[in-house]
Design brief:
single chain; 354 residues; alpha/beta; Rossmann fold; 2 domains; seven-stranded parallel beta sheet; 12 strands; elongated
Length: 354
């Protein structure tokens, strides 16, 4: 005879360590699919689900919410929700970047933050290689010639003659490195802890790579200029932190090779867009691929649209038919870990900012 059901080691106040209530904000799309809600309920039976719109308005009370699955909410909206959820203790960000979650209010609360590291690595790496190939094979110029009905063969470059410099060797940077390696590129990278190299596990939520990563060398952030001076393509894959704001500005662009391209799949704030535009116009660098901007959506009046040798995409490098499934699966895996009192995947270091 027992005194009652055994208590799960998990912190949730619901049965078997499950959280009493879970808040869901829109992730990747405006609405959750029926199957998304089904797998979340299966991972946390008996938990009450509260959905919150882009405007921050919930469809139920937040006073007993312990866990939040957060999409691309503005920091101010997130803080308003936080103020109404006194029992919130863990936030899972459906984005890899967490600068809008690590607000002063969430830091003061001591929230556990996890992120979507690994979910978007594959499609972003494919996007980067698409753009490297397009520039190396001179696709923009070929399309212009087609529009002009002009027959003019152009000389292209083989990727074995190309150096790819990756700024930020996290899960996205390593996935880019794996594909670049497969194409025969020489790959160098910067990393906050260069001694960890490409084999360091950035989180158990990472997808397997697309092959081996062969790095010429890994440099500390202080040696960024060395990477810029050698790279034909500079791929920005670093998180947004106080140390990376304006990382690519007038001084750093001046150290780049004259024909080099910048590819930004990180955050718009890493780049001084005015300095980049001047360098492209003046021929200081070869061109740029920008998928993320300081102001989004990019207004139609932006001078970036008119620049030669610049490819702009609407923050879509992450997109694929698989990312929503991976996002929900990672959150549910962590929900089960939460209820069991096991370590969560992809826990963010608030000091480092990622």
């Amino acid at each position: 005879m027992t005194d009652g059901p055994s208590r799960s080691p998990g912190p949730g106040a619901g049965p078997d360590g499950v959280p009493t209530a879970i808040a869901l904000t829109p992730i990747l799309s405006a609405r959750y699919r029926a199957r998304d809600l089904e797998v979340i309920r299966a991972a946390a039976p008996a938990a009450r689900l509260v959905t919150i719109g882009f405007d921050g308005h919930p469809d139920g009370p937040l006073d007993d919410v312990e866990v939040m699955l957060r999409g691309r909410l503005p920091a101010e909206t997130f803080d308003r929700i936080l103020a109404r959820a006194p029992k919130l203790r863990w936030v899972h960000s459906a984005t890899a970047g967490v600068e809008r979650v690590l607000t002063p209010a969430s830091r003061e609360r001591g929230l556990v933050i996890t992120n979507a590291r690994g979910v978007f690595s594959r499609p972003i790496a494919e996007y980067v290689m698409l753009m490297i190939l397009a520039a190396a094979r001179r696709l923009p110029q070929l399309l212009e010639l087609q529009a002009e009905r002009t027959w003019q063969p152009l000389e292209a470059r083989e990727l074995r003659d190309v150096t790819v410099g990756i700024v930020g060797l996290g899960s996205i940077g390593r996935a880019v490195g794996a594909l670049a390696t497969a194409f025969g590129c020489r790959v160098i990278a910067t990393r906050r802890r260069p001694e960890a190299g490409a084999e360091a596990a950035d989180g158990a939520g990472d997808e397997p790579f697309l092959g081996s990563v062969m790095l010429d060398r890994v440099l500390p952030p202080e040696r960024l200029d060395e990477l810029l001076a050698e790279s034909d393509f500079v791929v920005l894959a670093a998180p947004l932190t106080p140390d990376t704001v304006g990382l690519i500005g007038e001084a750093s662009i001046a150290t780049m090779k004259p024909g080099a391209w910048v590819i930004n799949v990180a955050r718009g704030e890493l780049v001084d867009e005015h300095a980049l535009a001047r360098a492209v116009r003046n021929g200081g660098i070869g061109g740029a691929v920008l998928d993320t901007f300081r102001e989004e959506p990019l207004p139609p009046t932006s001078p970036l649209y008119d620049l030669p040798n610049v490819i702009l995409t609407p923050h879509t490098s992450w997109s694929s038919t698989r990312v929503l499934d991976r996002s929900v699966d990672l959150f549910c895996d962590n929900l089960r870990r939460y209820a069991a009192g096991e370590p969560l995947l992809n826990v963010v270091d608030p000091t480092a900012g990622y």
